[in-house]
Amino acid sequence: MIQASPNTHRSTSSEIETVHYLPVSESPIDRILEQISKMEVPGREHVEHYMRHKWRMNHKPSTLTGSFYSVSSFLMFCAILGKSRIRDIVSGDIEAFIEHEQDRGLYVTTIRTRLNHLWAFLHFLSDREIIDGRILKRKIKLKAPDFLPRAIRLMSESYSVVLIKHVIVR
Known about the structure:
Layout: E1 4-10, E2 17-23, H1 28-38, H2 44-56, H3 61-81, H4 91-103, H5 108-127, H6 157-165
Antiparallel strand pairs: 1-2
Helix pairs in contact: 1-2, 1-3, 2-3, 3-5
């Protein structure tokens, strides 16, 4: 959906008015819908409805992009698994997708964000009775690893002694 705004210009030598249409930048939903039309995944029409729904709910462009990427990568993964219909998706497919994302070396927070986008899409499908709601019963929880404390670099002994000698006693 390309929009244009007219730019009228009057020529000084003649009284002929010419109208030039300048293209207005595409909206994020237009770019996403164009990418959806090129996808060969199960449930492509549902992804389009979902993205239009998110656009009508006035989500930010970055949220739309993140949701689209998460859902499309999951559906491509399902297509690789041999799923031809979106109704064939089971909770094991979601778990396998999470393992696949972890094997790619992504951070836990990135995977958690993608999983949240995917849950929202699956809830959308469940509300419209496209998929079975039992898929959503058991949530997958990812835990970020505990970070180890940074090691303190050892100072040389002479520097440590100098610091101790200059202690002010009050």
